[in-house]
Hints:
The chain is of the alpha/beta class. 31% of the residues lie in helices and 21% in strands. It has 2 domains: 16-184, P-loop containing nucleotide triphosphate hydrolases (Rossmann fold, 3-Layer(aba) Sandwich); 204-310, K homology (KH) domain (GMP Synthetase, Chain A, domain 3, 2-Layer Sandwich). It has helices at residues 30-38, 81-96, 118-124, 150-159, 176-184, 204-219, 256-263, 268-285, 305-310, and strands at 16-24, 56-62, 65-71, 99-105, 133-138, 164-167, 229-236, 245-253, 289-297. A 6-stranded mixed sheet has the order 2-3-1-4-5-6, with helices on both faces. A 3-stranded mixed sheet has the order 7-8-9. Strand 7 (229-236) and strand 8 form a beta hairpin.
Amino acid sequence: MPSSPSRKKADESVVRAGTVAIVGRSNVGKSTLLNAALELPLAAVSRRPQTTRTPLLGIVRHGGAEIGFLDTPGLHKADSKLGREMNRSARDSVRDADVVMFVVALPPNVKGDVRPHAGDLALIEQLPTDKPVVLVVNKIDVVRDKRRMLPLLATLSATREFAAVVPVSALAASGIHLVLDEVAKLLPEGAARYKEDTLTDRPMRHFAAEYVREAILRATAQEVPHSVAVTIDEYAEPATEEEVTRISATIHVERDGQKRILIGEKGAMLKRIGTEARERIEVLIGGRVYLALWVRVTAGWRERTEALADFGLLARTESP
């Protein structure tokens, strides 16, 4: 379970504690929001939709509250069993959370008044009515005249009552403290659930796999990203300060052509991916890493329950 050496000590005791599910469409900046709240790039991010495949817990202490943010997969029209499992896990997170943070994003190249995305309006209707929902409007830096946002805010606010509406730019970490202020006061009273320096409940093996996949998403074209899964074959922590963490990972793809793309000419693409992922892992663990990557064709894995379970991508229930 990673902890951050740079995390600030809490200056007050925890009187509220709970979970906040971060939900919304794909590519609205949910993972970037989590990273900004943590002040650490923990979650994998990319320009590709559905980068987040499983809920990720990130713990922040703010305003006398221990906030357990759950970054969830973007809700989308699923065309595979993997996609359906991602949607299911996001909805499970909403069901179990104390507070829901619903994230929408302004579109790029705004030229007139901003109107809601049809997908946002559809998702709002699915949000629970028995728990507080905070509306976060992300990417506000794309529009200079903030008055252009008024139609968007008016339409969304007319669909339901929000506990708060907070405009932010997650990439610039602007407005994040306002988000923390709002969700902190909505959590139930109670003692802290985690040790003070705990950052997440995920093991380092999880982040090693995610950072390899993140490097792939950044390096490859449209054909490859959604067909990739990464499993960790070995994760050996060093016995002494002089040794390195040794990690061996397998990249699973669905077709031979995807394997050739990932390996690249004379292994150039795989080397590029490995270097970026290794450097990313080293930052998180604060030490040197030896990373070995292998590419394997696992045909049709996105539709196979057994493969999804082996890869840690199966939602906890099988109910629709």
